[in-house]
Structures are given as C-alpha cells and as structure tokens.
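dude i think i finally got it to work??
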Amino acid sequence: MYLEPDGKDQVCDIVVLGSGPGGLAAMCGAVSSNPKISVIPVEASDRLGGNGIYSTGWLAMVDTQPQRDQGIKDTVDRFINDCRQNIEESTPRYFAVILKASAHVDEALALNVKGHRFHDEAGPYQYRARELLKQPQQKAFYIFDHRTWFLQQRYPLKRFNTITMAIINGKKVGGLSLESLTALKNTLETGDLLREVGGFSTFRIGLRDDEHEYRLDISRGLIHTIHEDAPHAAFAIDFTISAPSEAWTAYLQPEPAPEYSDLMCMVTEKRADISGDSEKLFQNLTFVYGMMRVLGHRGPLAPELAAQKEYVGSNGLIEEVIGRYVHVEVEGHIYRTFFEENGPKDAIPVVCLHSANADARAYRHQLADYDYTSKYRMIAFDMPWHARSLPPQELLRSGYLLTNSFYRQFVRAFCEALKLERPIVIGCSMGGYIAFYLGYHDADYYRALISVAGRDYEPRRWALEAHCRNPAMNFSRWCPNITRGFMAPTDPVGCVDEVAFLYETGSPRCLRGDLNFAARDCDARPFVHKIDTEKVPFYILGGEYDWSCTEKQTDEIKSRMPGANVVRMKGIGHFPPDENPDVFKSYVLPVLAEAIQKSERAVQVL
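look at this
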C-alpha cells in the first residue's frame, strides 16, 4: 500500500478501517480463527460509535472531550476487549479481503479523516503495533465501505496491491462471495449512496462465477434476498452477468487493469457474458454499475469523493476564448455552426473534432491552455445537430443519420468558410474515424491529421442504437455510465465527472445519428494504404484504457497503413482531450510539433 501522510510515500504492512466497534470486532474474529494472519484493528472504541480512524500500523485510541465528560478513558486492554465482545454479533455483517503487503513499516501515524494527527495535551495517543503482536505481520485487510473511499481520496492512498484469493473461516474472499454481497445489502440498507436511482430499481439479477451463482432480488433499490445456487425454477431472474472467478476479482478493483476496466469491455472482449433481458438491464444500468462500484470496481460515486474545488480564475475574469457562429453550406443547406477559438489569427490553425454525442466543450481545456494557444490557432466547433449548432429547420423532421460523405464535406466546408490555410485536424473517436476519409480524399488540403481513439472500421457500436430509440430507456441514465467505462480509473475525478455530464446532456437521437457513421458507414480498410502520408502526415493516438481502440487494433491499422505513425498513450482512455488533459498534452504537443516538421519537409520536396 502506498500512502502519502506527509507528502512522502511509504509502504505499510497493515491497514484496517473499522466501521465502528462492531466492524473491528468482525476483524478480530477473522484473525482469531486464523493464527497465520496478524491484524491490528483500528478504531476509537469510545462507546460513542467510533471516530473513523485510519491507521497505517498503529493501534490508535482517542481521548476526546465527550469521553472525559462521561468519565471514560480507553486503555489498551479495554480497547481490545470491547472489540472482541462483539465478534459473534458482527462477523456475519462485514466482509474483508486480504491484500498482499510489500514490506514492514516500523513507524507510522494514526490520522483522522482530514489527515491530521491526533494530538492532545498529553501528546498523541499511539501504541506501537509490535508491542502487541510478536510475529511479523503479513496481511492487510480492507472493508468495503464507502467511507473507506472518502478516506482514500482525502488521505490519499496511491494504489492498492492486487487483491488475491484467500480463505477466511473456510470461505472464499476476493471477487464475488456471499459475504461481499451481504455487505452490499447492508450498505444499501443503511446508506443513501444509490437512493436516488434505487427508488425506481426493481429487478432480479444473477451474478455467476466459476463456483456459484448468486441471485439477488432487488426492489426499490434494496436487496431483499440473496440466494446462493438456488434452482432456476424456484427463483427466476431478469438477467445474468457471468464471468470466471479470476475475471471478477480483476474487475472488482479500485484500479482495474485495462482489459477489466469496464463490464461492457469484458463482454465485448469475451471475458464476461450478459444473458437475459437486455432492456431490463439498461433500464437499471445506473443501479447495477453503482452496485459494482460499492463492491470494489473503481469506487463509489459518493458526493464526498467528488473532485476538489476547481480553480478556473478569479471572479470577473473574462477568458480569451471567443465563441461565434459561421454559416456553412453543404449539400444545399446552410448550417449555422457554433465554434470557439483562441490563439493568434496568423498561427497554424488546429481544428478539433469532437466525439459522438459530444460538442466543442470537449476541447475547453486545450482552448484555454497557453501551451497550445501561444503556438496555434485552436478551433473547435459543434457538428450540426449537436449542442449549439441547431440543424436547419427544414431538416428537423427528416431524422439525423451522419454519413462519411457529409462529414468529410462539412469539415472541409467549415475550414474554407473560416478561410483557414492548410489546417491541422485533431479528431477524437468519430472525429478520429473521419480522419481516414479526409486523408484519402483531401490530402492536399490538410497540413496533418491526428486521429485520437480512431478506427478505420468498428461495426460493434451499432448495438446501442436500439437503446437510443427505445422509449422505455432513460438515455441520460445509461449513457453516462457507458461513458465512464471508456475512461481510465486513474483519470482526475473532476474530469471523469465532467465527461459523463457532457454525455448526459446529449440526446439519443444525436448519438444514434453519429453511430450511423461510426458503426455503419465507416470502413476505410480498402483505401487506408492509399493515403499519401508523405503529403499529409497521419497520426493515430490510442489510449491504454480505451477498449474500443486497443493496441492490437492500432497495430492492425498500422499493418494496413504502413505510413501512419501510431502513438500509444499510457493512463488514458477513449476521451483524452477532456478526461485527462495533462496526460493528453504530454503526447499531443510533441505530435503536433513533429507533424509540422514533416509537413514542411513535404512542401519543400514538392
């Protein structure tokens, strides 16, 4: 475990978070049944419900004013005895997983939820772990509780070691288990983490691993019953999520590996399977994803885990970014198109194309960043039918289905309307898909093309179009959950929430129309090898956590298009410009500089 108590990382041997004295008693019970495991439970057993202490190897006790008012003062013996008295009562209600510890730490400090040391007039109340436990500690415990994530964010924990499969009291720990699901049940009963969506969530779900199938009866956001290996006839369910035990363990991690970063990713790549009523699943997708987060996947979306206050400038600051409308004619219609720009008018123009169901807001970080705008004229526009670019009124009843022909024509017509000279185009997702068509048809016009999260062929996304049309689906609920799964678990929390919100404010009609191009009318495989990459430098940027643009897939594009430059980006997913602007900048600025050099050499040759 890597901690940062005073700005300096440490590796700790034992970490235990207690959910009150009862939770600690459960920990003591687990330890007492297995002599090979040594654990120090940490909580203030002050008869007042605990103080939520997080320890890195100390047995911590707090002498608080309320305790003094009641004449209560803890001692080591009393602390331990208070915990052990509640073992039998508490053990069935809590679940812990064993984490591998890297090394032993002789000294560490008890901290409260704000990361401050507990001090009193007589000094800190701390007792060395080694005075109480003689054998070297080998394991650490972690209780699934959303308060843990609060502490993790504020403390913070840098990363968890890989959760291993272990046996406690003869039962499996890690991945799915009756204990973890029981803890989930208790969390939903006592907290309001999923209360908003839970009031409308009534369904039966099956969760299956290599050994068991757990069937949950959920009504209005509460788990009423959990059945282990119940006969199908006796307990019918709406849908089942199945995966090998190892896959569940890998998925239910705070920072899962890329191949286990999302449930839909696992299904797409054949690491998991979903069977049953898909409509029922998508109707309850927010609740299902919320359950998985409470069980350990990425962490709960609790308000106390939100981003720190964002600093965007002082009150009254007027940014240099300018928003305007330009009229663009394509295929006989005038499109009043909104765009934003920043940077010198005489600088090399960089036109940014947003992803499906998004808009120019996706590039707000780049347009406000001096590292870009000091060198380039940064421009981002809303495609027709998106955000502030309303379609012509005569088309509103005709429906929206984007095609590669219209998209290609529109991008060039927009650039010509602004009288841009040999612009560079950066496109993300579907904006990266169209780059192949721009390179094939208009290589002479563009200075360079940068396809971010782009594919020359990806038909599988059309499966979502039915959920866009179905009136029984709440688009603004399921879409942001799918969106979150495309991003890296290491992304800044605020950026992830912002991207999810951006997609929440889109429309099912818009997404379906975009998918028509991305999944049905985009197959550049027959001609990518013909794109003259000497004339128009072409870059493909793929994110480590983007399961729609994996390393295997970018390698396949490279095999078809030898002249393309492939750049793999670590620690980022499908929406690099806005999910993690700093990581994206570290990759795209060098690419821009190199692309310009290549383009200038190409012009000199000509």
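The CA atoms of residues 211 and 245 lie 8 Å apart.
im so relieved honestly
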